[in-house]
Amino acid sequence: MAELITVDDPDDPRLSDYTGLTDVELRRRREPAEGLFIAEGEKVIRRAGDAGYEMRSMLLSAKWVEVMRDVIDEARAPVYAVTPELAERVTGYHVHRGALASMQRKPLPGVGSLLAPESGNVRRVAVFEDIVDHANLGAAFRNAAALGVDAVLLTPRCADPLYRRAVKVSMGSVFLVPWTRLGSWPEDVDLIRSAGFTTAALCLSEQSITLDALAARQHEKLALVFGTEGDGLTPEALAAADAHVRIPMDAGVDSLNVAAASAVAFYATRPASA
């Protein structure tokens, strides 16, 4: 059972994991370097724990202590009870959900091991190229979890899916879908292809086929590749892909944002048994 510790000093060093949560650049550097991430809200904290992430500490306002009592009883990490005002001074914003937890990251798997047959029946993979908006990435992970995508691969410049906003938007779905980061892009398309996947780039190009046409081919293993909302996929990624695919649009609209496009593509290409 974790010890419940009341803290009344915002400069208490025991709260250092939670300082400056609104400083995006600071947290982007600090969290991966220190091997931590922040889970916000009861549901997200519980999902992180269920996914096997180890808790470093928890920060709770008084009214959330009883709500999280079972988590406190099972935790081996310190639990800090603070007032909402102190939580805001430490984090830099009003913590609406009243519960934060600092969690320990896990080592990322290699691409080969993630896609290997022994990892499970991995048939559909999403590849996100240079998605830097945390909300879009979190929403895309939520779509992947909801629509049965087996794994997610991120290019080196993609945002951190364990950054607080991405985790929050995903409602903890980033813990439900296996993922890793590619070491080199688009060279690592060869790793995906060697694992038996056909790579399909979502884009507008002269040689693109419709999403329905792609789905009709019923590829045994399919990797869907998505680019940024503004620029789309890089020319190098397009050249490396096995197929170009477009989502047909009406009313003069030529594209959807990456989160919406991923939901459409995931649903359209779901396996026949799903």
What are the salient characteristics of this protein?
alpha/beta; 274 residues; Alpha/beta knot; 60s Ribosomal Protein L30, Chain: A; seven-stranded parallel β-sheet; elongated
Structure description:
- This protein has 274 residues and is α/β, with parallel strands linked by helices.
- The chain has two domains: 4-104, Ribosomal protein L30/S12 (60s Ribosomal Protein L30, Chain: A); 111-268, Alpha/beta knot, CATH 3.40.1280.
- It has helices at residues 24-34, 42-50, 69-74, 84-91, 111-115, 134-146, 164-170, 189-194, 211-217, 235-240, 258-268, and strands at 4-6, 36-40, 55-61, 79-82, 99-104, 124-128, 151-154, 179-181, 198-202, 209-210, 222-226, 243-246.
- The protein has a seven-stranded parallel sheet. A five-stranded mixed sheet has the order 1-4-3-5-2.
- α3 links the parallel β3 and β4 (79-82).
- The longest helix has 13 residues, at 134-146.
- It starts with a strand and ends in a 6-residue tail after the last helix.
- The mean pLDDT is 93.
Overall pLDDT score = 93
The largest β sheet comes out as: 7 strands, parallel
**Portion of residues within helices:** 25-40%
Shape: elongated
Task: Write the CATH fold name of the largest domain.
Answer: Alpha/beta knot
Q: How many separate domains make up the residues?
A: 2
Instruction: Sketch the topology as an H/E string, one letter per element.
Output: EHEHEHEHEHEHEHEHEEHEHEH
Structural class: alpha/beta
Beta-strand portion reads: 15-25%
Would you identify the regions where 5 or more consecutive residues have pLDDT less than 50?
none
**Name of the CATH homologous superfamily of the largest domain:** SPOUT methyltransferase, trefoil knot domain
Query: In whole angstroms, how far apart are the ends?
Result: 41 Å
* CA-based gyration radius: 20 Å
CATH architecture of the largest domain: 3-Layer(aba) Sandwich
CATH class placement of the largest domain? Alpha Beta
Total helices: the number is: 11
* Arrangement of strands in the largest sheet: 8-7-6-11-9-12-10
Give me the count of strands: 12
